[in-house]
Amino acid sequence: MRRVWALVWKDLLVEFRGREFLGAMVVFALITIVTLNFAFDLSRGDREASGAGGLWIAFLFAGMLGLGRSLAVERDRGTLEGLTLCPVDAGTIFLGKFISNVLFIVIVQAVSLPVFYGLYNLPSLEPMVLLMAVIGAIGLAGLGTLFSALAASSRAREILMPLLLFPLAIPLVIGTVRATTLIFQGDGAEAWPWFNLLAAFDVIFVTLSYIVFDLVLEE
Amino acid sequence: MDDNLGYLFAAFAVTWLAIAGYLLYIGQQVKGLRDEMQLLDDGDDAAT
Amino acid sequence: MMQRNSTNRSDMLVMGLGLLTVAVLTLGIFMAFVYAPSDLAQGNAQRIFYVHVPMAWLAYLAMAVVFVGSVGYMWKRSARMDRLARSSAELGFLFTTLVLITGSLWGRPIWNAWWQWEARLTTTLILWFIFIGYFMVRAYAGDRERGARYAAVLGIIGAIDVPIIHQSVTWWRTLHPEPIVLDTGGPNLPDSMLATLLVCLAGFTLLYAYLMVQKTRIETVRDALAERELTALFAPESETLDRRPVAPVSRNVSGAAED
Predict the structure, then answer these.
(1) Which of A155, A201, A212 sits opposite C153 (nearest CB)?
(2) C117 in contact with A at a CB cutoff of 8 Å?
(3) What is d(CA B31, CA C147) in angstroms, rounded to the nearest whole number?
(4) Is C39 helix (H, G, I), strand (E, B) or coil?
(5) Interchain CB distance below 8 Å, C150 and A216
(6) Closest Cα of chain A to C15: distance in Å?
(7) Over the stretch A46-89, which tens digit does the pLDDT of each residue have?
C-alpha cells in the first residue's frame, strides 16, 4: 500500500514540477463551460434544469484529456517500461495511476465549480454537489485509467480512449447529471438513489479495472 | 394497416440479406484460407 | 501438412446442425407470416416482433459468450477462448445491428418515430458501440497477442456494464416517461404468438450455434496459419524461408471484421 502512495506522490511531483497537463485541463474545462453557454443560451430556470449537463460534459472532456495525456506522456518518455520493471504488481501500478487521476480530476472540478456557479448566478454551492462530483470523478478515473493504458500503446490513442470510455461511462453521466440537476433544483433528497447507483458503479468498476490491469501491462 | 406490410417485409428482408451476406463472407474467408494453405503446402512440397 | 480432413463425423454433425437450423427457421418464418394471428392494435407490422426479439436475444447471448471467452482468456491465456470471444463478438455485432434496424422498422409504423430512448433500445445501441470498441482495440493494438488481451479487457468490462447501463437508463426514463412504450405483448401473449416466438427463438439460436462453429473453425485455421508464418520467418534453418512470399501483416491483426 505504501508503494501505491509512492506512485501517487511521483505522479503529483511530475505534474507540479513539469506542469504537464493539469493547468490545461482546468482551462479546458472552463472554456468548455463558457462555450456551452453560447451553445445553449439558457434562461435562469433552464440553467437549473440543464446546467448540470453542461458542467459534466466539461468535466468529462477535461478528464478525458488528462487521462489520455497522463499515460501517453509516460509511454513517450519510456517511463512506463520503468514502472513495469519495478517490483510492483500491475494492480499497484493501477491504483497509483488511478488515485492520481482522481486527484487531478477533483482539482479541475474544485476550480470549475465556483466559476460555474459564478458565471451562471446559481444559488450557493451545496456540499452534495461536491460529493456527486467526487463520486463521478472516481468512476471516471477508474475506467479512464484502464482505457488510457489500453489506448496508450496504439497509434490512435487520442481517439481510442474516449471511444471506449464514453459508452461504458453512460451510467456515470446519467447518475451525476440527474443528481446534480436535482440538487440545483432544490430536490437534493431525491438525489440519493442516484448516489447509490454511482457508488455501486465505482466499486464495481474500480475493482474490475484493478483486476484486469494485469492484462494491459504484460509486455 | 396493410401499408405496414412494407415495413414488415423490409425488416425481414434486411435480416435475411444480412445473414446471407454474412454466410457469403464466411464462405469467402474459407476459400481464402484454402488458397493460402495450398500456397504454403506448395511451398513446403517444393522445398523438400 | 495441415490436418484439413480431420474427421468426417464432425463435418457431418455440423452439416446436420445447418440443416436443422434451416428447417426450424423455415417453420418459424411460416408461423410468423401465416400461423400467428395479426395483432389487433398494430396489424401486420407486429410480425417484425418475431425477428426483432430473437435478434435481441442473440445479441445479448453473443455478448455473454464474449464475456465467457474473455474471462477464459484472462484466466488461462488460451487461444481457444480468444477465438470463442472474437467469433462471438463478430456475430454479436451483426445481430446488434439487426436489432437496431428491425427495431426502427417496427417503431416507425407503430410509434411514428424511428427511435425511442427507451431502456432496451438504448442499451442495445450502447452495446453496438461496445462491439465496435472491441474490434477497434484489436485492430489498433499492434500485434495479435496484445489485441487479444486488450479485447478481453473490453469483453469483461463491457459485459458487466450492460446490465448497469440498462438499469440506469430505466431509472432515467421513469423520470421522463415516453408516451408509448414498446409493446412486446408481455405476459398476455396469446398461445399462438408465444409458440411462433419460441420457434423463431429456437431457430435463430441454432443459427447462432452453426455460425459460431463455422467461425471458430475459420479462426482456428487463421491462427494456425499465422503461427506457421511466424515460425517460418524466424526459423533460420528452414529451407522454405527464401522461397516464401512474405506478407504476414494482415494476418497478424486478426479478429477485425475486415482484413
Answers:
(1) A212
(2) no
(3) 25
(4) strand
(5) yes
(6) 38
(7) 777 778 888 899 999 988 888 877 776 666 666 666 666 677 77
A33: confidence class by pLDDT, cuts 50, 70, 90: confident
Cell 435463430 sits on residue: C204
Q: Answer yes or no: do B37 and C98 touch at CB < 8 A.
A: no
Q: Which residues of A touch C157 (CB under 8 A)?
A: 143, 146, 168, 205, 208-209, 212
Work out how many CB contacts closer than 8 A connect B with C: 84
Nearest to B7 among C108, C228, C244 (CB): C108
In terms of Cα–Cα distance, which of A192, A93, A206 is closest to A140?
A: A206
Task: Give the ipTM of the model, two decimals please.
Answer: 0.88
Distance CA C111, CA C90 (A): 31
Q: What is the pLDDT of residues C201-236, one digit of tens each?
A: 999 999 999 999 999 999 999 888 888 777 777 665
DSSP state letters, C84-115:
HHHHHHHHHHHHHHHHHHHHHHHHHHHHSSS-
With contact defined as 3+ CB pairs under 8 Å, the chains touching B are: C
**Amino acid at the residue C205:** T
Question: Mind telling me how many Å the CA of C202 is from chain B's nearest CA?
Answer: 16
Q: Where are the domains of chain A?
A: 2-217
Quick one: cell of C38? 395479426
Counting as low any pLDDT under 70, the low residues of chain C are 1-7, 40, 175-188, 234-259
Helix (H) or strand (E) holding C143: none
Scan for cell 458501440, then name that residue: C129
Instruction: Give dist(CA A196, CA C77) in Å, integer.
Output: 35
Element of type H or E holding C139: helix C119-140
Q: Do chains B and A touch (3 or more CB pairs under 8 A)?
A: no
Alpha carbon A187 to chain centroid, angstroms: 25
What residues of A are in contact with residue C126 (Cβ under 8 Å)? 167, 170
Report the run of H or E that residue C205 belongs to, with start and end: helix C191-234
